[in-house]
UniProtKB/TrEMBL annotation:
GO terms for molecular function: DNA binding; sigma factor activity. One of its GO terms (biological process) is DNA-templated transcription initiation. This is Sigma-70 family RNA polymerase sigma factor. InterPro entries: RNA_pol_sigma-70-like, RNA_pol_sigma-70_dom, RNA_pol_sigma70_r2, RNA_pol_sigma70_r4_t2, RNA_pol_sigma_r2, RNA_pol_sigma_r3/r4-like, WH-like_DNA-bd_sf. The keyword Thylakoid does not apply. Belongs to the sigma-70 factor family. ECF subfamily. Residues 107-155 form the RNA polymerase sigma factor 70 region 4 type domain. It comes from the Bacteria. The lineage of its organism: Bacteria, Pseudomonadati, Bacteroidota, Bacteroidia, Bacteroidales. It holds the Pfam family Sigma70_r2.
Length: 167
């Protein structure tokens, strides 16, 4: 991919990458940092983006992954502050933090077992925040079909999650 082509794709899709980053961050500086990091990754991988028309997909995935990495770095540990004067805690109790962490781990395990097409749909819809229409265009399907597939994927995830929680 030539530099002029890369610049054109950046101009065309940068707004989409900013939208994805806004899904994860509310601070404009963090959003811009994530998008800039994604663009650097895209530049480094420009020769591997085949066909070049998939630039948006690669960029969306890179942006999402960078945002998740930044969140993990920033919130790697959960702290509970205690106001000793009033005996109150701010944030979540250690028990709720543990339960939340266990539920997240369980959900990730369920996602790994999801069939590839459903996993990708959930990633595009929930992870990247794409509309049903955008997903339909990307995969060459109808919007109503995508809605049905996403609903089935969610249903499978919920069933697997509930079955594992009972164990």
């Amino acid at each position: 991919m030539e530099i002029s082509e890369f610049i054109e794709y950046v101009r065309r899709y940068r707004h989409d990458f900013v939208g994805i980053a806004h899904h994860y961050f509310h601070d404009e500086h963090e959003v811009e940092d994530a998008v800039q990091d994604a663009l650097i990754r895209l530049w480094m991988a420009r020769e591997r983006i085949e066909p070049p028309e998939r630039f948006r997909q690669y960029g969306a995935t890179a942006t999402r992954n960078i945002c998740l990495d930044k969140i993990k770095q920033k919130h790697g540990l959960h702290f509970v502050e205690v106001d000793l004067a009033e005996g109150k805690t701010s944030g979540h109790s250690p028990q709720s933090v543990l339960e939340e962490s266990e539920n997240e781990t369980l959900m990730l395990q369920c996602m790994k077992e999801l069939p590839a097409k459903y996993k990708e749909l959930i990633r595009m819809r929930n992870g990247e925040g794409l509309s049903y229409k955008d997903i339909a265009n990307l995969i060459g399907s109808t919007e109503s079909s995508v809605r049905g597939m996403v609903a089935r994927a969610r249903s499978i995830l919920i069933r697997q999650f509930n079955e594992r929680r009972k164990k």
